[in-house]
Write a structure and sequence with these properties.
The chain is an alpha/beta fold and 280 residues long. The protein has eleven helices and seven strands. The chain folds into two domains: 2-123 and 204-276, 2-enoyl-CoA Hydratase, Chain A, domain 1 (Alpha-Beta Complex), CATH 3.90.226.10; 125-190, no CATH class.
Length: 280
């Protein structure tokens, strides 16, 4: 009698709709022991696993990121779109606290973007920030010696006075990246976008309700209620996460190498600064 119930229970479970969930949290391109973030390397396999679930009705991407590297953002965007096309599965992006800059670029890989009423969305622009230490080292009497081959090898060196020609070249690069970002958003959102382009692509960001009015998101809500509303109360949402504990130690990834403490500390500060832009 007990054995006859097993096939029934198995069939019952198999009948439940499945939507695997991948969480992408942190600054993009900055992933160290002091500041865990999002990179293509630590995300690609999770996406592969989520889309490989044959019975999945869709794949949910939960995003909480202030942005970061445009290259890493674009690589992740492309992987999501490629997997969605190969597996013929819709993608729904859910914004938590923030999907700004590169975080919003990744969200655009989804067929639908859902945000909370208070989520921060947008910042479709490009930023480059550094410090100028030339006056400080001069005041301290420090003599810096650098030897290069190449006229522009020291371009924008933080220990040298800023040159107008270097800034001009940087701004030209930023314009190219910004144009790519704008094209990607237009391709993804299409006629859903509302409002003047000068506003939408100014680098400004908005809360969820305003983002909805501008067509940057499709719906206000949260992952539990949206998925239950769409796929039923019995929807299964397995979290596709990296290995933890002993397995994590055996998995290749970022290591805290001796002598890297300074670089890790700087990355942590950079990550903190990205979050701080959005009051988080």
């Amino acid at each position: 009698m007990a054995g006859s119930r097993i096939p029934f229970l198995a069939r019952l479970f198999r009948a439940r709709p499945i939507v695997p969930v991948v969480r992408l949290t942190g600054a993009i391109g900055l992933s160290t022991p002091l500041a865990a973030g999002i990179t293509f390397a630590n995300t690609a396999k999770l996406l592969d696993r989520a889309f490989a679930i044959k019975r999945a009705r869709a794949v949910a991407i939960v995003i909480n990121s202030p942005g970061g590297s445009p290259v890493q953002s674009h690589l992740i965007y492309q992987r999501i779109r490629a997997l969605a096309a190969e597996n013929k599965k819709p993608v729904i992006a859910f914004v938590e606290d923030v999907a700004a800059s590169g975080g919003y670029m990744i969200a655009c890989a989804a067929d639908e973007i859902v945000a909370d009423l208070s989520s921060i969305v947008g910042s479709i622009g490009v930023i480059s920030a550094s410090f100028g230490f030339d006056k400080a080292i001069r005041k301290l009497g420090i003599d810096r010696r650098v030897h290069t081959a190449g006229d522009h090898k020291m371009s924008l060196d933080p220990f040298s006075p800023e040159k107008a020609e270097d800034v001009k070249r940087l701004r030209a690069l930023q314009q190219d990246i910004h144009a790519m970002f704008i094209g990607l958003v237009k391709k993804s959102r299409g006629k859903k976008l509302k409002g003047p382009e000068k506003t939408l692509f100014s680098g400004e960001f908005w809360v969820g309700e305003q983002a909805l009015r501008y067509g940057l998101v499709d719906k206000l809500g949260d992952i539990r209620n949206v998925l239950r509303e769409r796929y039923g109360k019995k929807v299964v949402t397995p979290l596709i996460a990296p290995p933890s504990g002993w397995l994590a130690k055996k998995t290749p990834g970022v290591t805290f190498a001796e002598g890297d403490w300074a670089a890790n500390l700087i990355s942590a500060f950079e990550s903190r600064a990205l979050w701080a832009r959005y009051g988080l």
